[in-house]
Amino acid sequence: MTKDVITLSASMPEPLGVLASLFAGGPDRFLGTAGEDAVVQLCDERGRPLVSVEAPFLVQVPGEAERLLGAEAPPLPYWWTEARATTGVEEAERIAGGFAARLASLSAGTTWPPEAARSLAVVESEGVQVAPPPAAAQPAVDVLTEKAAVVIQDRPVIAMTAWLSDALRATALAGLALQIVTPASARLSLAVRTVLGGWPNRWVVQDEESGYYDGLSGSVLSWQDGMFAPVPEAGGPGGDAEPAVAPAFGRVTDTGERQLAVSFRTVHPADDRLVLGGALEALWRELTGAPPAGWSTAEPVSLPWSPRQLTDVAHDRSPEPTWAVAVGGTGRPGLATLRISRTTAGVEEDVTLAFGYGPGEEPPLDALRRAAGTLATRHRLQSMLVQLRKARRDLLVPPWFEGPGVPLAFVLGAEEVRGIPGDRARRTPLPEPPLPLGPRTRPALYYPLPGDPSDLSGWQEYERLVRHLKGA
User: Whole-prediction pTM value?
Assistant: First the structure.
């Protein structure tokens, strides 16, 4: 049975309804709180959490339940309530299911997964105790060692939920690795892939054939000294041991699906009149004909798109950085992550954006130059890289190899062009000269890259260009 149970309800769960639902564990269970009282916990006799329930939140963006759960949601807007059972305790999992079943009946809702909420009866849990939680462990963390925090997830899509976001933030502050363990059937949200990539964090896939392996690199893993680490395989160059690669990671098939990936940075002067998110919206409109549908600081994305609200949240959190995610409507799969930070240069927006295309669908490559021109002239673009990848249209990340993107274009902002001595920015080793964007006196430059999907020539040309611009 899954460790997470979610209630989707048309009406807001009332506090008394949540309390009554928690009686699925019996009247003698203890209640506790965590996360500045945003999480209610049903505990054993010693105060150790059996089930943790996050505060309900309102979802006002279409398609999120379908994208993340494969479930049919009530009409918008609807309420999303998550309950997480302590791993490895059968009674806790049954209590979480009973909680969700009761809450759904009281608030005109449904549960995911449906089989988890089969009974409204009280779960017999007298005498059930759980292992003491490690010091400073988050509700989402199942195992905490001196080296790593391990999160065990059994959901179709591993999303950047508030639970997982808190765990990632806590492990980063503590200097620990975050390792997410899932079955081979799970997929990562692109938002999780963006923040999870790179050592020491890992996506640990449990496969019947290959055992444990890294879902992003394919390295066979085993539990070593308090964390999952690669298993060396003899026979590397010069006789050195190299990480073994799981056979399951190599099942690559070209379905004809593609992703257009755009990463860019803007830098704005710190000003009370500054409104963030305008560059992302302009690019989204240029490539799809519509703005993003919604945004949030976690998944599921719950708020309608609003640059003003995004700016207010970033302002309130400053000088700490703000991470956010945006999604598109149901017509064209699109997802972006934003990192807004205050630096000595001003207010920086680092954006990674992807759109999905199926067989026979062509990305609007002709619109890229127009979009780059808009960002360069109106939104203080610093740099931009555009790639085309062989990857899933739905933007989910599977636990097998997906090749690197092919770079299509690189854009250098007007201020960066001015900062390069002489005319080096205009005289490049590329076959095609750069295209000017914006005013003649202070143009940004658009560099077309002759990327070949069958080899690495696009990356070689991109590296040549970067070295040239740096004067190397």
Answer: 0.89
